[in-house]
Amino acid sequence: QRRPTPMPSNRERLTTPIKRAVQTRAHNYCEYCRCPGDYATDSFTVDHILPRRAGGTNALDNLAWACYGCNGRKQAKTHARDPDTDQLVSLYNPRTQRWADHFCWHKNNLILRGKTAIARATVEALSLNRPTVVNLRRLLVAAKLHPPDRLSDV
Length: 154
Known about the structure:
Elements: H1 16-25, E1 44-48, E2 63-67, H2 68-74, E3 79-81, E4 88-90, H3 99-102, E5 103-106, E6 111-114, H4 117-125, H5 131-142
Antiparallel strand pairs: 1-2, 3-4, 5-6
């Protein structure tokens, strides 16, 4: 009988306490599209900013809280093209960069705009203004629950 190959340490499953710590640090908002977990239609997950297959670890400084829409589009991407310059740039890193330095709200707080090449590439690559997210933002604006101002420095 064949024994399973042990997984390397960077492949270890994330523990529930680590997942909770990532969720708490993000105030239960997607760290990319800023969709609130309390109102999202999909579950949230922990994203490896530097994917494990690229050497990323389960360390807290490599983990972000993400909705499945953003996480599914990001997958193992670390770079994307800025649509304005066609330059290849790194994607936004919520652990080393301030969200407010890179993104801003536009059109009645429904559309997320990139202020930098990194943000513009991230908006495109992760489709941060996909129709389902914009529709959710519209409802949250009407309920006075958006934008999440308290997260501008997170």
